[in-house]
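Hey, I'm writing a tutorial for new members on how sequence and structure tokens pair up, and I'd like a real worked example in the thread rather than a made-up one. If someone can provide the structure for the chain below, I'll link this post from the tutorial.
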Amino acid sequence: MPGAVFRRGDRVTLRPVEREDAEFIQRGHNHPDVAVSLGLNRPENESEAESSIEGNEDDPLNVGLLVCLEDDEEPTPIGKVSLQNLHHTRPELSYWIVPEHQGNGYGTEAVEVLVDYAFSAHEIRGLQAQAFAPNQGSVGVLENVGFTHEGTLRDARFRDGEYVDVVWYGLLREEWEDD
């Protein structure tokens, strides 16, 4: 079961990832639509998912949170958002939502909640994020939240049988605070 509520949006909550969430993380990472979008090129077993969770639990430089929908009985995990390298002036943001919940704005809302946390709790200059250029859903999340396209790495990753461009986006603190 997901951990206690860390941050709330209108429709989603962000909760710490617990060891018991390894099955959900593994299922997400192994789903072809998520794995291809994340650039994962091999299957992950539950033990590997557990090790990843345990490795990040005590790392103060990384924050990983489950994106959950709330219902009357218990929260339903639908994805994950993360911040890596919080000691950098521009940590990297990443996110994924399981396919059955994509297209409903949950990813955008979860990223907004995480960005708000990042700027309110950490002395950072900005955030950065990357996406595969063909992944219009992921690019749309970044643009909807206010990120600006900062560059393209041409044919940077091999994904689903072909080389694709990787696009980099950034959001500075004052851009977020001006909204």
